[in-house]
Amino acid sequence: MPSADQDAYDGWETLCNQAPGPTRDAYEIITKTPRLRSGRQEQLRGKELSTKVVRGVVMEQWQYEVTGGGRIWYCIDDERHELVVIRASLKHPKETE
Question: Are strands 51-54 and 57-65 parallel, antiparallel or unpaired?
Answer without folding.
Answer: antiparallel
